[in-house]
Specification:
The complex is a heterodimer.
Chain A lengths: L2 H4 L2 E14 L2 E14 L3 E5 L6 H8 L7 E6 L2 E2 L5 H11 E4 L11 H12 L4 H11 L15 H13 L5 E5 L7 H18 L2 E6 L2 H5 L3 E6 L2 E3 L1
Parallel strand pairs in A: 3-8, 3-9, 6-7, 7-8
Antiparallel strand pairs in A: 1-2, 1-4, 4-5, 9-10
Helix pairs in contact in A: 4-5, 4-6, 5-6, 6-7
Chain B lengths: L1 H16 L4 H36 L3 E5 L5 H9 L3 E14 L2 E10 L10 E3 L7 E2 L8 E4 L1 H7 L6 E4 L2 E11 L13 E5 L3 H4 L9 E7 L2 H12 L6 E4 L6 H49 L4 H39 L12 H26 L23 H15 L2 H35 L2 H12 L1 H35 L7 E6 L4 H10 L6 E13 L2 E2 L8 H8 L2 E5 L7 E6 L11 E5 H7 L6 E6 L2 E13 L10 E3 L10 E6 L7 H9 L4 E4 L1 H38 L2 H13 L4 H39 L7 H28 L2 H7 L1
Parallel strand pairs in B: 3-9, 6-8, 15-20, 17-19
Antiparallel strand pairs in B: 1-10, 1-11, 2-3, 2-7, 2-10, 4-5, 4-8, 6-9, 7-8, 12-21, 12-22, 13-14, 13-15, 13-18, 13-21, 16-19, 17-20, 18-19
The chains are: A alpha/beta, B alpha+beta.
The structure holds adenosine-5'-diphosphate (ADP) and magnesium ion.
Chain lengths: 228, 830
């Protein structure tokens, strides 16, 4: 291992597996997955629907615990932390963008962006949220509710929300999956633009090969296994 | 933490804007309003009834004594701000010329009576007016009975001891006297200042002194405590609970109904809150998952939602208290015309209690929900199904259940009632769960073989078994409480009205001799009055129980001693009176005629410590007779009919001298009949119970009003439960309807889906509610209110019908608007 890059390892996953037991018996969703993500890197996780991409993302972000293997995030072993410890880690370092936007319907665009900032107790939460929304071009829609926004606009709010707390790593699970091609393209431009500006590490899950092309590195999943 | 505070409040504000907490708040406001309104009102009614009862005593509290009470009693009463009056009662011969009669003299202080009123007239049974004060010194008022016995009229001077006192009026009505109304001599009322000069009270005279008190309940309580330790033997304190048994029993029933009703509204409201909370939680699962995703710890989530529950609880409780106060004020105003005296002002206790109870209810009910939110995994953000049907430990329900128990017993004001209803509830919930589970199984079978709308409707029911059971339980409870209250209210009111029909006997005639029986009958025929029921009455003393000579000293309770010492009125009956009920043993058969058996009233048997099968020895005019107790009877004293503590079969008492007693109804305006009766049969004594009847009717009218009001309030909480149960799955329903529309389902098909689902739920709930309500009503009527219960098939059909029709109709109303909106818009909004 190169000593100088050790400082810079964002995520190190080794031998990750995820099994679930169903009525049809044991089912392996993910088997023996290992990888390393360096700070500032952009990594795409590619694979067909059902290949285990979201499962992997959930494990890397500490949203779920693996059946076997371990994830080291910034020299912290996620398995050593409890649920709350992992949550705290997420709050400090991670941002998320989801396929289905995950905006809270009862909150306005601004309030949605404010949510993680207020949870983190950021002092100038309001300014930062407004700035983030301005960056994604939604200043005129601050007080609109998600149902009053188009899919693309909703995803822009979600992106603003993800970047506003200045995470060191961003997890995006098929951010364009629910959008038409043109809108999706604009969302992707925005995502990479912001990523470049802030130097955030990006882990992007997608089944879209052209989108994956824009990432520095690609990992292919097939039936829950890493395809070499 | 303060950051969390503002965060929680902001969340709450947006939840409010999104309409997510309206149902919850509504249920809470209603719960607290119900508790406080009923609490406030029951409080006021209770103190008003206390005063009403006080009218029978002449005061709120009475110290009765064989001796003149020490001066300090009056001083203490004055110190506590109580109003005071004194009376002395003693028997004495009264003379008019050569004619002498025994009278029961009552000498009263000028402030008498503190509660209730005296009415007087110029001639017997003449036009009555409210007396202004008491007899002036040198004057007396006498009862019609005494006037006719002596042949005295207004203006005559009667010899009372060493004084000649002038008859100033005929006394028509005085705060009713306690004790046995058949064995008291007629009343003569005089001024207390004249007593000394009559020379009637000397050492050894049998005088009953009474100190009457009236005022605020708190001061009365204080006085009671102060006096308790200072009472000598032969003194005791009486209050309303010692008033006439008929009135006591009517009061007791009303109080129980009020308790039942307020209990029902507490339970219903808490169930409504829990159901509304369920919806609130389901709507916030995603919020919590997101918060977890953004790094909030579990305890932080709990804190945020606790703050919200706390704020909601406080606001809702405050609002509820205001509404409750307003509601009871309106009612008190409505009732104002009916109450003789103004209702006493409401206390602060119900408001404070309501606030506290509301907060406790809110936090208790929300706790399991909040724990569910706390446990939502962050992964839910990726996998929607997680956290949806999370089960929290049953321990989490304990605080809520404890709060409910506490509130139930607090509002029941009667532990027995509380236990009955709780038992009923537990049984109902078990039945509801069993029925829901069993039906789930059945439906699965049906769904497998049917198609289209049926399958979707049924699938909806099966998909969320927890929510489904909660919904069925909620609907059942709501319907059950409504049905139960309808039954009990109807039974109670019917029973009251039946026990005091307009032609209830309002006059008793006693002292009828065997030789007068025939002429009495003819007199009634002549006067065109309904032939009266006539009962024989033999007087005797109880001298031994199971051959042990009666030792009245062993009765610590003074009432028991008095009961044991006085003369018993033994009566004879072949069949039991309709309003009596056997509680132990059995009534005699025709073949047991002439056997030395006796049937005793249950209460007196308990007081005297006598059991079924005991042998009682009576001394009747020097002869002894042994009677074996074959049955114990419950007597409805509030029926105001002639009733006897002790009854024997025919053929036992015939050899003893008997007199007869009758009761009959004298229509208003025919008081002249009484004069003719007394003139033709001068030895008869007529007792007028019209005044007691009027008081009894007054109490029942007021209680009817109270019962109706509280009933209406409970109906409102019932509706709240139904609404909350309905809205628990409103979001899902809207989404489903939208999805069905996307797939091209016609309006009719959509409607069928919703209707099938909720007709199923409603039918189940209606069935469970009917069974539950009937059983509970039976237990409550039979065990507690002691009124006969009859299953009402119409109400049962109505309840089931309501479940079957109203529930689906209301559910359809909730989603109807969705059908006209474009599905895309709908899907986006939920
Ligand atoms: N908890 C679970 N229980 C059963 N099956 C699961 C569970 N989690 C994931 N799966 C299954 O594992 C497979 C991979 O899922 P996912 O990671 O969501 O795939 P992708 O995101 O690549 O479409 C899918 O077939 C999914 O149904
Ligand atoms: Mg996926």
């Amino acid at each position: 291992m190169v000593p100088d890059s050790q400082e810079n390892i964002e995520i190190e996953a080794t031998g990750l597996s995820k099994h679930v037991t169903s009525s049809e018996g044991e089912l392996a969703i993910l088997s023996d997955f290992s990888c390393r993500v360096l700070g500032g890197e952009t990594v795409a996780i590619l694979g067909a629907s059902g290949s285990g991409k979201s499962t992997l993302l959930g494990l890397l972000a500490g949203l779920d615990v693996p059946s076997a293997g371990r994830v080291i995030f910034r020299s912290e072993d996620l398995a050593q932390l409890d649920e709350d410890g992992r949550a705290a880690l997420r709050g400090r370092h991670m941002g998320f963008v989801f396929q289905s936007f995950q905006l809270l319907p009862s909150l306005t665009a601004l309030e949605n962006v404010l949510l993680p900032l207020e949870l983190a107790g950021v002092a100038d939460a309001d300014e930062r949220a407004r700035a983030a929304l301005e960056r994604v071009g939604l200043t005129p829609r601050l007080t609109h509710y998600p149902r009053q926004l188009s899919g693309g606009e909703q995803q822009r709010v979600a992106i603003a929300r993800a970047f506003a707390p200045r995470p060191s790593i961003l997890f995006a699970d098929e951010p364009t999956g629910n959008l038409d091609a043109a809108t999706g393209q604009r969302i992707i431009d925005l995502l990479f633009g912001l990523n470049a500006e802030s130097g955030t590490t990006l882990v992007l899950v997608t089944h879209d090969a052209t989108l994956a092309e824009r990432c520095g590195r690609r990992l292919h999943l097939e039936g829950g296994r890493l395809k070499q | 933490m303060s950051g969390d505070m503002t965060f929680a409040l902001k969340q709450l504000r947006s939840a409010w804007r999104a309409g997510e907490i309206r149902v919850l708040l509504f249920a809470l406001v209603l719960a607290v309003a119900a508790m406080t309104a009923v609490g406030f009102f029951a409080d006021r009614i209770e103190s008003a009834l206390g005063r009403q009862g006080g009218m029978l005593l002449g005061g709120d509290l009475v110290v009765v004594s064989d001796r003149l009470l020490p001066e300090e009693f009056t001083a203490e009463a004055h110190k506590l701000g109580l109003r005071v009056a004194q009376t002395m009662e003693f028997p004495s011969m009264i003379m008019l010329g050569e004619e002498g009669r025994l009278a029961e003299i009552k000498a009263v202080s000028p402030t008498y009576p503190l509660r209730g009123r005296l009415t007087i007239a110029d001639e017997p049974f003449g036009d009555a007016r409210k007396a202004d004060g008491v007899p002036a010194p040198g004057e007396i008022w006498i009862e019609p009975r005494l006037a006719s016995l002596l042949g005295a009229k207004k203006g005559d001077a009667l010899a009372v001891g060493e004084r000649q006192l002038k008859v100033a009026a005929i006394l028509q009505e005085e705060p009713a006297r306690g004790g046995d109304m058949f064995s008291i001599a007629p009343r003569l009322m005089m001024n207390a200042n004249d007593v000394a000069s009559t020379g009637l009270i000397q050492y050894g005279s049998r005088v009953r002194y009474r100190l009457l008190l009236a005022g605020e309940p708190a001061a009365l309580d204080e006085f009671r405590q102060w006096a308790q330790g200072r009472l000598e033997r032969g003194s005791r304190i009486e209050d309303v609970s010692g008033a006439r048994p008929e009135i006591r029993s009517a009061l007791e029933k009303s109080r129980q109904f009020l308790g039942l009703a307020s209990m029902a509204s507490v339970i219903l409201s808490m169930v409504a809150m829990s159901l509304a909370g369920l919806r609130y939680v389901r709507r916030h699962l995603d919020t919590c998952a997101l918060m977890r995703c953004f790094g909030a710890s579990q305890n932080r989530i709990l804190q945020v939602f606790l703050v919200q529950a706390f704020v909601l609880g406080f606001a809702g409780s405050l609002l509820g208290c205001l509404f409750g106060f307003a509601a009871q004020e309106v009612l008190a105003r409505l009732a104002g015309g009916l109450f003789l005296e103004k209702l006493p002002a409401p206390g602060w206790t119900p408001a404070f209690g309501g606030l506290l109870a509301g907060m406790a209810a809110m936090l208790g009910v929300m706790l399991p929900h909040l724990l569910r939110l706390r446990g939502v995994p962050a992964l839910r953000i990726l996998r929607k199904d997680l956290g949806e049907n999370a089960v929290v430990s049953w321990l989490a329900w304990l605080p809520g259940i404890a709060v409910m128990l506490g509130l139930v017993f607090w509002s029941a004001r009667d532990a027995k009632l509380g236990w009955i209803v709780l038992g009923g509830l537990v049984a109902l919930l078990l039945v509801a769960c069993a029925v829901a589970a069993g039906t789930g199984y059945l439906l699965r079978q049906v769904a497998a073989t049917s198609g289209g709308t049926w399958r979707v409707g049924i699938a909806n029911l099966l998909q969320r078994p927890g929510v489904g059971i909660a919904q069925v339980a909620g609907f059942s409870l709501g319907l059950m409480a409504m049905a139960l209250l309808t039954i009990v209210r109807g039974d109670l009111l019917d029973n009251w009205h039946a026990s005091l029909p307009p032609d209830a006997p309002n006059r008793f005639v006693i002292n009828i001799q065997p030789s007068q029986m025939e002429s009495m009958r003819q007199f009634f025929v002549q006067e065109q009055l309904a032939p009266p029921e006539i009962f024989p009455m033999v007087r005797g003393r109880l001298v031994a129980i199971n051959d042990h000579p009666l030792d009245t000293g062993r009765y610590v309770d003074e009432r028991a001693r008095r009961l044991a010492e006085r003369e018993w009125n033994l009566s004879v009956a072949e069949t039991m009176q309709k309003d009596n009920r056997i509680v132990a043993g059995r009534w005699w058969t025709a073949s047991e005629r002439g056997q030395t058996l006796i049937s005793l009233e249950e209460g007196i048997a308990t007081t005297l410590g006598i059991k079924l099968g005991d042998r009682l020895t009576y001394d009747i005019g020097g002869q002894r007779i042994d009677l074996k107790i074959q049955s114990l009877r419950k007597v409805e004293w509030d029926s105001m009919r002639a009733n006897f503590f002790a009854v024997t079969p025919p053929g036992v008492l015939e050899k003893f001298p008997a007199s007869y007693i009758t009761s009959f109804h004298l229509p208003a305006g025919r008081e002249d009949v009484l004069n003719r009766l007394v003139r033709s049969q001068p030895n008869l004594t007529i007792i007028d119970v019209e005044a007691i009847l009027a008081q009894l009717r007054g109490i029942m009218d007021r209680m009817t009003l109270a019962v109706e009001f509280v009933f209406a309030f409970c109906m409102l909480t019932g509706i709240a439960v139904l609404y909350a149960a309905l809205s628990a799955t409103q979001d899902e329903r809207i989404r489903e309807v939208a999805v069905l529309r996307v797939f091209g389902a016609s309006r009719r098909q959509v409607r069928a889906t919703v209707l099938v689902e909720f007709a199923g739920i409603g039918l189940l709930a209606g069935l469970v509610a009917t069974i539950g309500a009937s059983l509970l009503a039976w237990v409550i009527s039979d065990r507690l209110l002691q009124i006969p219960y009859a299953f009402n098939p119409w109400l049962a059909m109505l309840t089931i019908g309501a479940g079957l029709l109203l529930v689906p109709a209301a559910a359809w109303l909730g989603v109807r608007r969705i059908v006209h909106v474009s599905p895309r818009q709908v899907l986006q909004s939920v």
